[in-house]
From TrEMBL:
Keywords: Hydrolase. Gene3D superfamilies: alpha/beta hydrolase. InterPro entries: AB_hydrolase (IPR050471), AB_hydrolase_1 (IPR000073), AB_hydrolase_fold (IPR029058). It holds the Pfam family Abhydrolase_1. GO terms for molecular function: hydrolase activity. Residues 26-185 form the AB hydrolase-1 domain. The keyword Transferase does not apply. This is Alpha/beta fold hydrolase. The keyword Coiled coil does not apply.
Length: 198
């Protein structure tokens, strides 16, 4: 149950594993996107007996990158001061320029105006500005695929490459996409996950 309190990594890890535990006691395959990738990696590190295979998409391990922090801080501030600018700004960071530029007028208005400010999103941004899992990554033992998004402006692709380098034996793949790869390149993403898990 969500009581509205600030999100913590520990709490979200326990929620993910708790949900899987309701279905099976066997190890499960875990796929995490963006902040979800951070949570998935932490779950695999802290509870290796619960995670069979791991896919990390557009994630990160650290928050001492000043450019990334600036992006998150502006995003967070706009949530408080101007919901329309919040939506426009995050759209610029979520998609590669060619994707947005290639949309027709109606689709462009829908994509760019689709990001609304919610309490949940604000709490996720706050956690995203705080969380650091570098010390956990050497403990990830599950077979892992790290997927980077080549044109990611929210979480630059170098962060995915760092995850790959920090997780022993992991595989790495880059997709020609901005951060929101599930929307921008869904077929490539699904094919990569199926190939790894299958």
């Amino acid at each position: 149950m969500d009581d509205g309190s600030p999100l913590t990594l520990d709490r979200l890890v326990e929620q993910v594993l708790g949900a899987s535990g309701e279905v099976t006691r066997d190890p499960v395959d875990v796929v995490g996107f963006s902040l979800g990738a951070v949570i998935a990696a932490a779950a695999a590190a802290r509870h290796p007996e619960r995670v069979r295979r791991l896919v990390l998409i557009a994630g990160w391990a650290r928050n001492d990158d000043p450019r990334k922090r600036l992006g998150f801080q502006v995003w967070r501030r706009l949530a408080d001061v101007d919901p329309e600018l919040y939506s426009h700004y995050i759209s610029l960071l979520l998609f590669k320029p060619e994707f947005l530029a290639g949309l027709d007028e109606e689709s462009f208005a829908e994509w760019v105006g689709g990001a609304t400010v919610t309490e949940g999103t604000v709490r996720q941004i706050d956690l995203g500005l705080d969380v650091d899992i570098r010390d956990l990554l050497p403990r990830v033992s599950a077979p892992t695929l790290v997927i980077g998004c080549r044109h990611d402006q929210l979480v630059p692709v170098g962060h995915s490459r760092e995850l790959h380098e920090a997780i022993a034996g992991s595989s790495y793949l880059e997709i020609d996409s901005g951060h929101l790869v599930p929307a921008e390149a869904p077929d490539a993403l699904v094919d990569a996950i199926r190939s790894f898990l299958g």
